[in-house]
Design a protein that fits this description.
Residues 172-296 form the GST C-terminal domain. It comes from Pseudophaeobacter arcticus. This is Glutathione S-transferase family protein. The protein contains ten helices and nine strands. By secondary structure, the protein is α/β, with parallel strands linked by helices. The chain has two domains: 2-164, Glutaredoxin (3-Layer(aba) Sandwich), CATH 3.40.30; 173-281, Glutathione S-transferase Yfyf (Class Pi), Chain A, domain 2 (Up-down Bundle). The protein is globular. The mean pLDDT is 97. The structure holds glutathione. Glutathione is lined by residues 1, 28, 60, 63, 65, 130-134, 147-150.
Length: 324
């Protein structure tokens, strides 16, 4: 694990010391948008026009943030329009790599690079910051459009509708405000909350994260006992953003990140909801459970120094969900 400083790779674990042992996720730096007509989006400097075959998505199957983008690519029928490369699950001293010796790791289809940091320095030779996935690459302008999953799923939600004819809307105008409110709590205490627990290097930092995480899971369980989806009857991006964390919870976060007050299968509504989303057309094919289990346990040697992969329970994602 490391980062780029002025375009040079430096092997360095997260700095938690300066935050009292707490993990702080850094902000994504490429924040431009693909839009239907190429006009600028809500952030960044520039707009990029939606075109079939122009964009390439770099993902890790292990990563919950990258997973959102793969799900939206599937839900919105973008597989024939946006190509992908999948990194190797092991993220060690050199960061994400394009090694191919793991089933599902594709190598870099565009440049045959060996490391993901080369994609960042291709876009900006002097880039300083973390080398994260997902990365949305523009083949025409040869640069990174965005490395922020929250933005990429919104681009996929609508920018290519004129090309695909798929007008499913997971970010409907009238629900944007309530979606934002749920996203914000879910991001802080659940999506990022599990990382705050797992990467904490002090008891205080862990305690500060684990309480709010399980408070939020209790709140979500209650919400989902009353409504099918977080926004009621309509499936939205808020659900997909929660799903990628729920999916990884019992196989990884419960043990590896010490989120072990309860498992997702101990919450009847969350567990059935998670299965419903898993069984939604196109979603199962985006799940790379081998990469998920391998990545976390093998890559985080500060947490699991002997790199032993746990046996894990058999989880039946295809059990009928009974919701709806
Ligand atoms: N804000 C980013 C966060 C992405 C992110 O942190 N990805 C992780 C993988 S799960 C990563 O690449 N980490 C590498 C690092 O922090 O050095 C997003 O949501 O797109």
């Amino acid at each position: 694990m490391g980062l780029l400083i002025d375009g040079i790779w430096k092997d360095q674990w997260y700095d938690t010391k300066s935050n009292g042992g707490a993990f702080k996720r850094s902000e994504a730096q490429f924040r431009n948008w693909v839009t239907a007509d190429g006009s600028a989006g809500p952030t960044g400097q520039d707009g990029f026009e939606a075109e079939s075959g122009r964009y390439h998505l770099y993902v890790s199957l292990a990563c919950p943030w990258a997973h959102r983008t793969l799900i939206f690519r599937a839900l919105k029928g973008l597989e024939d329009h946006i190509s992908i490369s999948v990194v190797h699950p092991d993220m060690l001293g050199e960061g994400w790599t394009f090694k191919r010796d793991s089933h599902g790791a594709t190598g870099d289809h565009l440049f045959d690079s060996s490391h993901a940091h080369q994609i960042y320095t291709r876009a900006d030779a002097k880039y300083s910051g973390r080398v994260t996935v997902p990365i949305l690459w523009d083949k025409t302008r040869e640069t990174i459009v965005s490395n922020e999953s929250a933005d990429i799923i919104r681009m996929f939600n609508s920018a290519f509708d004129g090309i695909t004819g798929n007008d499913l809307d997971f970010w409907p105008e009238e629900l944007r405000e309530p979606i934002e409110a749920v996203n914000s709590r879910v991001y802080d205490t659940v999506n990022n909350g599990v990382y705050k627990c797992g990467f904490a290097t002090s008891q205080d930092a862990y305690d500060a994260a684990v309480g709010p995480l399980f408070d939020s899971l209790d709140w979500l369980e209650d919400l989902l006992s009353q409504h099918r989806y977080l926004m009621g009857t309509q499936l939205t991006e808020a659900d997909w953003r929660l799903f990628t964390t729920l999916l990884r919870f019992d196989p990884v976060y419960h043990l590896h990140f010490k989120c072990n007050k309860k498992r997702i299968i101990d919450y009847p509504n969350l567990w059935a909801y998670c299965r419903e989303l898993y069984q939604y057309p196109g979603v199962q094919a985006t799940v790379g459970m081998q990469h998920i289990v391998r990545h976390y346990h093998y890559s985080h040697d500060t947490i699991n120094p002997n790199r032993i992969l746990p046996v894990n329970p058999d989880i039946d994602w295809l059990e009928p969900h009974g919701r709806g």
